[in-house]
Amino acid sequence: MSESDDQQVDQVESVTRRVQSADRSRARYDAFFGDSSAFSDPNHVWDEMNGGPLDEP
After folding, report:
1. CA gap 35, 33 in Å, rounded
2. Do residues 35 and 28 make contact, with C-beta atoms less than 8 angstroms apart?
3. Cβ-contact 55, 37 below 8 angstroms
4. Each residue's pLDDT tens digit, 31-48
5. 30, 36 Cβ separation under 8 angstroms
6. Where is the region Disordered (predicted)?
7. Nearest Cα to Cα of residue 36 among 25, 47, 46
8. Are the C-beta atoms of 44 and 37 separated by less than 8 Å?
9. Mean pLDDT in the chain?
10. Which pTM value belongs to this model?
């Protein structure tokens, strides 16, 4: 493989590690709080902080 191929492989591996890390973070959040809506919609928490409706348990 050429050096550019090696760099592309490194980039793909880096992205893969970040995605796996995000998945683990979401799983931990779900385990503790039971809702990962803050991950899917960052404005969700912001709305609650500014008087929006709170999640019902």
Report:
1. 6
2. no
3. yes
4. 777 665 555 665 555 665
5. yes
6. 1-23
7. 25
8. yes
9. 72
10. 0.42
